[in-house]
Amino acid sequence: MSKQERLDKQRREVSDSKPLRKVKNGESGRTIDINIADFKSHPLWLLLRETARNNPLYAGNAGYVEEYILPENPKISAKELANRLSITVGEALVILEGLLPK
């Protein structure tokens, strides 16, 4: 069987399967409420914080959030921030943790 025949067969199998669930307005299938205080007590919080801060884009994202996003929306959630900046929720949590008043 040639490569093209295998690809065609895979394509038919995928198209024959049941359709995927439609996602509305960019919402994902998993939603959780995120509280920074809960995450700060988790054993992996320090690892998440270190990883996010070592991202080369962290400083620029944090500066942008501080200068433009927080003044117009000081109570922005981590999920909203992640969607707005196209970053992970974990990175958004770390940025907010560093910028929001204690």
Sum up the structure in keywords.
102 residues; mainly alpha; elongated
In short:
With 102 residues, the protein is mainly alpha-helical. The chain has helices at residues 3-16, 36-40, 45-53, 58-72, 78-85, 89-99.
Commentary on this structure:
- The chain has 102 residues and is mainly alpha-helical.
- The protein has a domain at 33-102.
- It has helices at 3-16, 36-40, 45-53, 58-72, 78-85, 89-99.
- Helix 3 crosses helix 6 (89-99), helix 4 (58-72) packs across helix 6 (89-99) and helix 5 crosses helix 6 (89-99).
**Major beta sheet summary:** none
Unreliable parts: none
Number of helices: 6
Query: Strand portion, in percent?
Result: under 5%
Class based on secondary structure composition and strand pairing: mainly alpha
* End-to-end Cα distance: 64 Å
Radius of gyration: 20 Å
Overall outline: elongated
Helix content: 55-70%
Spell out the blueprint of helices and strands.
Layout: H1 3-16, H2 36-40, H3 45-53, H4 58-72, H5 78-85, H6 89-99
